[in-house]
């Protein structure tokens, strides 16, 4: 939309506080890219707009569902792009960013798996250089083609997720054993990631095994600036509790690449129902946990059980790899070769699962199918839950006045019709739903 001060999303439906869909009208400030007004009374809204002499463009939503845009905190690549490739380019990252809105994803954390120091140094720099752009991609405010001010016309890059290499080798999954380090320290962190700024905004999440030598002191040093997630691990329940006390707040892809539940040692799974309280009375003992809801990585009943224990801490991730969107065949994941057969990705000639080829909108639909949860609860697992984990709920993750207008329009089957990012319409598939 060009030329008017406001964009009116007319005749949409939104979830109220009780999870019930109700008709609504939403106004976006086209200059700030923020949500300006949410109203359930069109006459009052239009009267207010007229009284203030505001002009606006109207988008007719035809009774479809308006929701916050999805946030994917773990995605290894898509559509032929691998974020861990030694040949990664800025254009590759931009390609993924431009394609994700078709799945309802408005922001994401590109994920680099266990890699060489050279790949970390190079790829962290490439992806970090594309975070948090504020100007239009085509030109800056002075009309100059200045790369330092460009922004991708696609899903926003929130920061990196570094998944490895500080893992238990026996739980490395699809990660190359040659890169795995079974001890960790701040000096090793700095040398492995080539002294990248761990105290800024570009590295958001680091997944490590909390039982490794030096892990707890490293977690204490990092956790005020970086989200520490427990994963690819042989950690016991007590190891996990110690890591949470040190500052870890997330479990990476629950059930996968970790000790299984046992009645004498529930492992990391036992943490998600913890009711431990800190000095302020908050539930410090229950971490967030990400989960891949593709029916391959975890049985639907396992997903249902985890969800029932802690629905507000479940975060949907795709863990998608370069093969997502490409179909059956062989593809890359870092230094490894992966075979994709329909919806299942495994290391070539093995039964080892290797990420997924699932899209985020499919994750949301699957969570409803697997757990019987309500639509707004499934959407929360891809929106406000990850926003809270990332400490970004004041900007993204919900439909509230003043937040970024990162929005998606869905039909009743939760297929994506339109996607707005910062108030700009970046995906429109409405012709396919007429």
Instruction: Give the CATH H-level superfamily of the largest domain.
Output: Metal-dependent hydrolases
Q: What is the overall number of helices?
A: 10
Strand content: 25-35%
**CATH topology grouping of the largest domain:** TIM Barrel
How many beta-strand elements? Answer: 22
CATH class designation of the largest domain: Alpha Beta
Radius of gyration: 22 Å
Number of domains: 2
Helix coverage percent = 10-25%
Could you please describe the fold and organization of this structure?
The protein is α/β, with parallel strands linked by helices. The chain folds into 2 domains: 97 residues, Urease, subunit C, domain 1 (Roll), CATH 2.30.40.10; 303 residues, TIM Barrel. It is built from 10 helices and 22 strands. A hairpin with a 2-residue loop joins strand 18 and strand 19. The longest helix is centred in the N-terminal third of the chain and has 12 residues. It is globular. It starts with 5 loop residues before the first strand and ends in a 6-residue tail after the last strand.
Spell out the key features of this protein.
alpha/beta, 4-stranded mixed sheet, 434 residues, Urease, subunit C, domain 1, TIM Barrel, 10 helices, globular
Would you spell out the secondary-structure blueprint of this structure?
Layout: E1 6-15, E2 21-29, E3 34-39, H1 42-51, E4 56-60, E5 65-68, E6 70-75, E7 77-78, E8 81-82, H2 90-99, E9 105-113, H3 117-128, E10 156-157, E11 160-163, H4 186-192, E12 203-208, H5 215-222, E13 227-230, H6 237-246, E14 250-251, E15 288-292, H7 300-309, E16 314-317, E17 329-333, E18 336-341, E19 344-347, H8 360-371, H9 375-380, H10 384-389, E20 407-410, E21 416-421, E22 424-428
Helix pairs in contact: 7-8
């Amino acid at each position: 939309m060009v030329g008017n001060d406001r964009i009116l999303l007319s005749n949409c439906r939104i979830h109220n506080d009780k999870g019930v869909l109700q008709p609504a009208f939403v106004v976006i400030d086209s200059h700030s890219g923020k949500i300006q007004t949410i109203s359930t009374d069109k006459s009052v809204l239009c009267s207010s707009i007229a009284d203030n002499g505001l002009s606006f463009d109207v988008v007719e939503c035809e009774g479809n569902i308006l929701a916050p845009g999805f946030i994917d905190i773990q995605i290894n690549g898509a559509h032929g792009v691998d974020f861990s490739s030694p040949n990664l380019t800025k254009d590759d990252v931009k390609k993924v960013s431009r394609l994700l809105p078709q799945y309802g994803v408005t922001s994401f954390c590109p994920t680099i798996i266990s890699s060489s120091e050279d790949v970390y140094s190079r790829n962290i720099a490439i992806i970090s250089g594309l975070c948090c752009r504020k100007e239009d991609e085509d030109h800056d405010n002075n009309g100059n083609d200045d790369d330092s001010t460009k922004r991708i016309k696609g899903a926003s890059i929130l920061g990196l997720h570094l998944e490895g290499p500080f893992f238990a080798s026996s739980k490395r999954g699809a990660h190359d054993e040659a890169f795995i380090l079974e001890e960790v320290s701040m000096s090793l962190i700095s040398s492995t990631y080539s002294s990248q700024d761990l105290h800024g905004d570009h590295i958001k999440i680091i997944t490590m095994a909390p039982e490794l030598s030096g892990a707890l002191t490293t977690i204490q040093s990092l956790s005020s600036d970086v989200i520490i997630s427990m994963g690819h691990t042989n950690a016991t329940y007590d190891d996990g509790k110690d890591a949470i006390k040190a500052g870890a707040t997330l479990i990476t892809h629950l059930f996968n690449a970790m000790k299984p539940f046992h009645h004498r040692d529930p492992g990391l799974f036992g943490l998600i129902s913890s009711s431990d309280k800190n000095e302020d009375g908050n539930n410090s003992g229950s971490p967030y946990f990400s989960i891949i809801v593709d029916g391959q990585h975890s049985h639907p009943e396992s997903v249902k059980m985890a969800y029932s224990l802690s629905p507000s801490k479940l975060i949907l991730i795709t863990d998608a790899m370069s093969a997502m969107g490409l179909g059956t065949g062989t593809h890359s994941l870092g230094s490894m070769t992966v075979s994709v057969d329909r919806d299942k990705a495994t290391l070539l000639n093995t039964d080892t699962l290797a990420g997924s080829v699932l899209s985020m909108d499919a994750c949301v639909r699957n969570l409803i199918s697997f757990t019987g949860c309500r639509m707004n609860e499934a959407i929360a697992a891809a929106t406000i839950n990850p926003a809270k984990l990332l400490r970004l709920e004041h900007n993204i993750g919900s439909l509230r006045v003043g937040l970024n207008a990162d929005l998606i329009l869905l039909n009743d089957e939760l297929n994506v019709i339109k996607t707005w990012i910062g108030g700009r319409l970046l995906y429109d598939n409405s012709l396919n739903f007429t």
